[in-house]
Amino acid sequence: MKAVQFHRFGGPDVLQYEDAPKPQITEKDVLVRVHAVGLNPPDWYLREGFKALTPEWRPKVDFPAIAGTDISGVVEAVGDDVSGFSVGDEVYSMVRFPSGLAGGSRGYAEYVAVSPSELAHKPKGIDHVRAAAAPMSLLTAWQFLIDVGHDESNPLQPHRHKPVPLEGKTVLVNGAAGGVGHFALQLAKWRGAHVIAVASGKNEALLRDLGADKFIDYTRQAPEDVVREVDLVVDGVGGPKSGRFLRTLKRGGTLFPIFSLGFEGADEARERGVTVSTTQVRSSGTQLEEIAPLLSDGTIKVVIDGTYLLEQASDAHARAEQGHIQGKIVLTVR
What we know:
alpha/beta; 9 helices; globular
């Protein structure tokens, strides 16, 4: 088969479209012929060698490596012990995450082997491009806001993450036009929240169309200077600056930094009576099946920044490095 592999860490130019062994499935696996692949930040973290992590946190990567978790396609073959899926079924998945973080997910390819526990039937109302764009970002928003869906220990904090009630609450979503952000906005609205969307001005029309009740252009005013008494902040950007949103929250409020590494506001959060919680998204075919009707009927819309052919993966990564992505970037397979 053809796949996009890399033989060393580096920039987008290390991604090579070349021949690779076609996956051989066991009796417990499903072989999927891939039609589209969604890009996510872990793809370029892997390609760069996880340089943002301290050495002891960096997973060992065996070369050649193939990035990519989010796929949509058609079942090519089914192992003897697999039930619930048949050859010809249209399916989508977030493959082996976080277990495949070090290149074992292997989504940038014409074929991928998937555990049925991570696989779901593709929403009938959307195409493969939108289905491939959804899994990681939408499962992240879902597991933060609706249902964690697992009891695995959290490597990012000592306590289990717990979603909070949303109906009638005021929720601020920072980075609302991004992959996780535009899904978090829609899920909060679906659950009855009043949503304040924070993004650059070019995204206002899109975010209001997705349901935002109020919009703040961060290039004109800092949201932490003008917003107060919010119940929940979902910070889709996260990192060291996430603590600035503590002042926007009411006492008893909650901050969910999607990317929590470097958060420095723990002491201030305690003083303000604010709960800070995060979690790491995990693959779940069960949740993707649950979400599928919401994607199919348009309750949740998938925004596409752009599409590239699989062999143009390096161009797609170069676009991702420019930042300010509106929704998701997707690779299509010929």
